[in-house]
């Protein structure tokens, strides 16, 4: 393992954290030369994910400093390797959480690379050549083309960036539960109205379903209904509302990353309903047995998505004109943005204008 290997000859300007204080500062580092399977991408925008906070502060004890975060990347391809298919110079491209996988296991062969045992991530991972991966808080990226997707021409590059994490994370459980092309209108619930939840509401409405937002924040009701088009809102701290909502939902997507009990949420599901969890609280979930058993309900997890699903998700966003609601910042505002994100003070995703004036 090394920060770079001999083929890392390209100097790149980026922004990195160097210790658990999490403070981001300008950082010049090396990227590899464009290989036969690689594309080089001039980064225009990079979203800020809650995962970035955990990595810069080493909350999970796995950070390899210096860490250059960022796995919600959009930009323009400037170079392609000789083996690259389906990409050319000038294409609008995007990179999400995945940088490498074994490409040989059952999951990789089924384009579920995100579940490969040898998966490596866009930052704070170990690439095939043994180097540490650096993410999208930088001006340029070299990526294996098999982990790159196209951005539809009709959606803005800045608002598309968070789709590479938030979008795919909520899209996959909806697809797994047959909500994308379902001829029947379902009643679905979205727990939490943040970076993931607001995109999930947009997907749910685009797919023709009845969408209920479930939140601990009364102020989110107006946003959910008037801004995002949700049909109903349940304040989860209101016992009467929760009682009235019992056994009314076919499917619930839980996007909350704070500690909470799954019991009251399960009670909102119909018999045979499914709760899919994509939020990752640091403390274990509370999962009472009775709401699970007496409703014949299922609890599932889901993590991002494979590359085929990611391109499908981007195409769906192009079809329905779905993007994220964002606040665009400059690189010198990253620390302020990370602090605000930790306080949930953003509607609904920060995106860094990496190019600083360059546009698609």
Automatic annotation (TrEMBL):
The yes or no answer to whether the keyword Oxidoreductase is present is: yes
State the source organism's domain of life. Eukaryota
| Residues of the Enoyl reductase (ER) domain | 22-352
| Pfam families in the record | ADH_N (PF08240), ADH_zinc_N (PF00107)
Pathway where this protein functions: Aromatic compound metabolism; phenylpropanoid biosynthesis
Enumerate the GO terms in the molecular function aspect: cinnamyl-alcohol dehydrogenase activity; zinc ion binding
Which reactions appear under catalytic activity for this entry? (E)-cinnamyl alcohol + NADP(+) = (E)-cinnamaldehyde + NADPH + H(+)
EC number(s): the record gives 1.1.1.195
Keywords from UniProt, A to Z, are: Lignin biosynthesis, Metal-binding, NADP, Oxidoreductase, Zinc
Q: GO biological process annotations for this chain's record? A: lignin biosynthetic process
What does the record give as cofactor?
Answer: Zn(2+)
Which PANTHER family does the record match to this protein? Answer: ALDEHYDE REDUCTASE
Q: Which family does it belong to?
A: Belongs to the zinc-containing alcohol dehydrogenase family.
The UniProt subunit note reads as follows: Homodimer.
Q: What name does this protein carry?
A: cinnamyl-alcohol dehydrogenase
């Amino acid at each position: 393992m090394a920060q770079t290997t001999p083929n890392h000859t390209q100097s790149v300007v980026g922004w990195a954290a160097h210790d658990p204080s999490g403070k981001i500062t300008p950082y010049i580092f090396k990227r590899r030369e464009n290989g036969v399977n690689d594309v080089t991408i001039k980064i225009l925008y990079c979203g800020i994910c809650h995962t970035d906070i955990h990595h810069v502060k080493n909350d999970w004890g796995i950070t390899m400093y210096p860490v250059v975060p960022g796995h919600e990347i959009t930009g323009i391809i400037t170079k392609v390797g000789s083996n690259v298919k389906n990409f050319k110079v000038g294409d609008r491209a995007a990179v999400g959480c995945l940088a490498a996988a074994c490409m040989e296991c059952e999951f990789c062969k089924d384009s579920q690379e995100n579940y490969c045992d040898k998966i490596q991530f866009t930052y704070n991972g170990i690439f095939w050549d043994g180097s540490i991966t650096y993410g999208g808080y930088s001006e340029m990226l070299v990526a294996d083309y098999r982990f790159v997707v196209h951005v539809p021409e009709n959606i803005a590059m800045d608002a598309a960036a968070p789709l590479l994490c938030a979008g795919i994370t909520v899209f996959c459980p909806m697809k797994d539960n047959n909500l994308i092309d379902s001829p029947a209108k379902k009643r679905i619930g979205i727990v939490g109205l943040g970076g993931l939840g607001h995109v999930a509401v947009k997907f749910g409405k685009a797919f023709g379903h009845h969408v209920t937002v479930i939140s601990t924040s009364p102020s989110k009701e107006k946003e959910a209904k008037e801004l995002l088009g949700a049909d109903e809102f349940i304040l989860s701290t209101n016992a009467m509302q929760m009682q009235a909502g019992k056994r009314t939902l076919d499917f619930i997507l839980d996007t909350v990353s704070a500690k909470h009990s799954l019991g009251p949420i399960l009670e909102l599901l119909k018999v045979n309903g499914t709760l899919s969890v994509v939020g990752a609280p640091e403390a274990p979930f509370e999962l009472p047995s009775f709401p699970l058993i007496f409703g014949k309900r299922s609890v599932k997890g889901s993590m991002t998505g494979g590359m085929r699903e990611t391109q499908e998700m981007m195409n769906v966003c192009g079809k329905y004109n779905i993007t994220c609601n964002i606040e665009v910042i400059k690189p010198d505002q990253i620390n302020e943005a990370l602090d605000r994100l930790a306080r949930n003070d953003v509607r609904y995703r920060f995106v860094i204008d990496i190019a600083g004036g360059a546009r698609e």
